[in-house]
Amino acid sequence: MATVLAVGIGVAAAAFFGRAGLLALNKYRGGTNALGKAFYKGGFEKTMNRREAALILGTPERGATKDMLRKKHRQMMLLNHPDRGGSPYLATKINEAKEMMEKGA
């Protein structure tokens, strides 16, 4: 009984420290966030362009439907609205991105 318990604790410890080690290595390499997606390294352009608008909304540069744009805009605004603790600047950029993408959609 004691042997089984010791083995179980050993396996759990190895898994915990192995995961912690992999996360530390990934962070050291400048890899990804917790969801496995890399962050976009760079700021905003002085004037909005189509590429930047697509990156902000998470849509393709070409071929995004109005329904897709509406859903993505709503999703981003729910996460970043100033009334819910988000940034007014980011909310402005999200709205600007939607307007930019709707021009060509």
Query: In what range is the share of β-strand residues?
Result: under 5%
Runs with pLDDT <50, length 5+? none
The percentage helix is: 55-70%
Largest sheet: none
Please give the domain count. Answer: 2
Give me the Rg, rounded. Answer: 21 Å
Oligomer: single chain
Instruction: Quote the distance from N terminus to C terminus.
Output: 67 Å
Order of helices and strands: HHHH
Number of strands: 0
Count of discrete alpha- or pi-helical segments spanning 4 or more residues: 4
Q: What is the CATH class designation of the largest domain?
A: Mainly Alpha
Stated plainly, the CATH topology of the largest domain is called Helix Hairpins
Gross geometry: elongated
Briefly note the structural class of the backbone. Answer: mainly alpha
The CATH architecture classification of the largest domain is Orthogonal Bundle
Mean pLDDT, all residues: 84
Tell me the CATH superfamily of the largest domain: DnaJ domain
Helix and strand arrangement:
Layout: H1 2-28, H2 50-57, H3 66-80, H4 88-104
